[in-house]
């Protein structure tokens, strides 16, 4: 059995892109592996969130993952800041991370460009903290999207370096967890690219039916096909991609045929799509609301997760201290 670890950014609500791109796969993954899911609230401090928002964001993310089906009895789900061992190992690992290599990562260079007024040390050593998240649980698989590949590469570098410096075979070298083609890339409804929070085109699991309807009805289309069986332009393909994940195959076939015969009415297609998204998200939304207001359950879940995560983390940390040469009197 593999140890799989995934870090979740604590910056607000999940959209359909998150769900079909990752979260849905976590649900099956947790049954086949020893899974750790944690909410990266320390990482979120690089952008200096307001104290009033910090906890609430963590709570929302926790509620949403639980509502989607992450099972705290099967997987270990915890909040990063509940595991102080991570902070100590971060201090130790920072000693073997070099400023030059950290400055050269694409995410750091990106941030320097985008937020020149806040290039803090935490931002620079973000990859070290992420490596520690992974290494402290001795995870060998990490499900990551394209944007996190370089961070995983840095993790391997730091793990190998530690093993080399001390002549040990201590940290496993983590690899990307492949979903074997089960990842569905969900497009936005603005006719371009993918669905994303920063793109401002997200349909959120937590959106109310009316909001979903409005967002779908506003989706970009064209003036309709003019030739039988003509290829679909991007914005129309996007509508069908969404339809394919939330509707029945019959429904998809029905509209595909209408399109092929040049009889499609985009208004009908959108109405159906909106309804099927609503049918899909409504039960999840109800569970989110339920869980989010159940402080007893959330407290119990976070506590249980932190205990399991800390037990494993402190074992790793004690061994690391010994390897480095710390001894108690
Ligand atoms: N950097 C990741 C992101 O932005 C979040 C993260 C933090 C993470 N620590 C991690 C992901 C450890 C995987 C493993 O999405």
In short:
This protein has 329 residues and is mainly alpha-helical. Helices cover 56% and strands 7% of the residues.
Give a description of the structure.
The chain is mainly alpha-helical. The protein folds into 2 domains: 3-184 and 295-324, HUPs (Rossmann fold, 3-Layer(aba) Sandwich), CATH 3.40.50.620; 209-289, Tyrosyl-Transfer RNA Synthetase (Orthogonal Bundle), CATH 1.10.240.10. The chain is 56% helix and 7% strand. It is built from 14 helices and 5 strands. The chain has helices at residues 16-32, 41-44, 51-68, 85-94, 99-103, 106-114, 121-124, 126-135, 149-165, 209-217, 234-246, 249-260, 266-292, 295-324, and strands at 3-9, 34-40, 76-79, 141-142, 175-176. It has a 3-stranded parallel β-sheet with strand order 1-2-3, sandwiched between helices. β4, α9 and β5 form a beta-alpha-beta unit. α3 (51-68) packs across α13 (266-292) and α11 (234-246) crosses α13 (266-292). Bound molecules: tryptophan. Tryptophan binds at residues 5-7, 9, 40, 43, 130, 133-134, 142, 144, 148, 151.
Structural class: mainly alpha
SS elements, strand count: 5
CATH class membership of the largest domain? Alpha Beta
% residues in beta strands: 5-15%
Helix content: 55-70%
Detail the topology: elements first, then pairings.
Elements: E1 3-9, H1 16-32, E2 34-40, H2 41-44, H3 51-68, E3 76-79, H4 85-94, H5 99-103, H6 106-114, H7 121-124, H8 126-135, E4 141-142, H9 149-165, E5 175-176, H10 209-217, H11 234-246, H12 249-260, H13 266-292, H14 295-324
Parallel strand pairs: 1-2, 2-3, 4-5
The structure holds tryptophan.
Tryptophan (TRP) binds next to strand 1 and helix 8.
């Amino acid at each position: 059995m593999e140890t799989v670890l995934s870090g979740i950014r604590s910056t607000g609500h999940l959209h359909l892109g998150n769900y079909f791109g990752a979260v849905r796969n976590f649900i099956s993954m947790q049954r086949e592996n020893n899974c750790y899911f944690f909410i990266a609230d320390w990482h979120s401090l690089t952008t200096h969130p307001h104290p009033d928002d910090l906890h609430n964001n963590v709570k929302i993310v926790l509620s949403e993952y639980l509502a989607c089906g992450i099972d705290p009895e099967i997987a270990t789900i915890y909040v990063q800041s509940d595991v102080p061992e991570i902070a100590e190992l971060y201090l130790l690992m920072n000693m073997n991370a070099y400023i030059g290599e950290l400055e050269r990562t694409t995410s750091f260079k990106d941030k320097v460009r985008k937020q020149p007024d806040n290039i803090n040390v935490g931002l620079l050593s973000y990859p070290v903290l992420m490596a520690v998240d992974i290494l402290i649980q001795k995870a060998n698989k990490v499900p990551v999207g394209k944007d996190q590949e370089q961070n995983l590469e840095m993790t391997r570098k730091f793990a190998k370096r530690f093993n080399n410096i001390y002549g040990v075979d201590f940290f496993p070298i983590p690899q990307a967890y492949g979903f074997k083609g089960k990842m569905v890339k969900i497009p936005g409804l603005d006719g371009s690219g993918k669905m994303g929070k920063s793109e401002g085109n997200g349909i959120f699991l937590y959106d109310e039916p009316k909001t979903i309807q409005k967002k779908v009805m506003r989706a970009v289309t064209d003036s309709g096909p003019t030739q039988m069986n003509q290829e679909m332009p991007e914005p129309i393909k996007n509508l069908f991609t969404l339809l394919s994940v939330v509707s029945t195959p019959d429904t998809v076939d029905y509209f595909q045929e209408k399109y092929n015969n040049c009889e499609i009415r985009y208004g009908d297609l959108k109405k159906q799509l909106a309804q099927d998204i609503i049918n899909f998200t409504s039960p999840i939304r109800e569970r989110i609301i339920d869980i989010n207001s159940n402080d007893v359950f959330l407290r119990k879940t976070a506590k249980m997760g932190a205990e399991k995560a800390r037990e494993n983390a402190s074992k790793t940390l004690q061994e690391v201290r010994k390897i480095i040469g710390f001894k108690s009197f």
